[in-house]
Design a protein that fits this description.
Helix content is 91%, strand content 0%. The protein is mainly α. The longest helix is centred in the last third of the chain and has 106 residues.
Length: 172
């Protein structure tokens, strides 16, 4: 329960007690103790009313009171300000990352422009190397065919010589 409500309840109770004491002093008749009985009954009624008011306000809770509502709004505003500051830090970090990415992209573009002539030159070089390789391959094929033909002819000559030698020795 909010402290302001408790203070208001007790101040109201004190005001009622003062009223009852004033009433007690103003009554002139002391008819068999009715004056004291009226004071006791009034105080009991005041106590019951104050207790009911206290129970009612305590059942409302601090969030139903104005001060509780203000405190709740203050807490929500603090949470919102925290969220905004976190969002600002996140945006700043993303801006830094974005600027770094832009810088990296510009460096890569610069490298691309620097390497473009080399790539084009490499394409021409690759074409020249492919033609040289093709010419070398055809020359190698011709050479291998000639070597194969010479080996075949040499083998044929050796076989003819071998056959003639064996005929010559076996004829005798």
């Amino acid at each position: 329960m909010d402290i302001d409500i408790i203070i208001q309840i007790f101040s109201g109770f004190a005001a009622f007690i003062i009223l009852m004491v004033a009433f007690y002093k103003s009554v002139k008749v002391n008819a068999g103790g009715y004056k004291t009985l009226i004071l006791i009954i009034g105080l009991c009624i005041a106590s019951i009313i104050m207790a009911a008011v206290a129970v009612y306000f305590s059942a409302l809770g601090p969030e139903k009171t104005v001060k509780g509502h203000i405190l709740e709004q203050k807490k929500e505003l603090y949470e919102v300000s925290e969220a905004i500051s976190k969002l600002q830090r996140y945006i700043e970090e993303q801006n830094i990352l974005l600027s770094q990415a832009k810088e990296t992209i510009s460096q890569l573009e610069k490298k691309k422009h620097e390497l473009a002539p080399l790539v084009e030159a490499d394409d021409k070089t690759i074409d020249i190397v492919a033609k040289i390789h093709e010419n070398d391959l055809s020359a190698r094929m011709i050479r291998e065919r000639l070597i194969g033909a010479f080996i075949g002819i040499a083998g044929l000559i050796l076989i003819v010589i071998f056959v003639n030698i064996t005929r010559f020795y076996f004829k005798k």
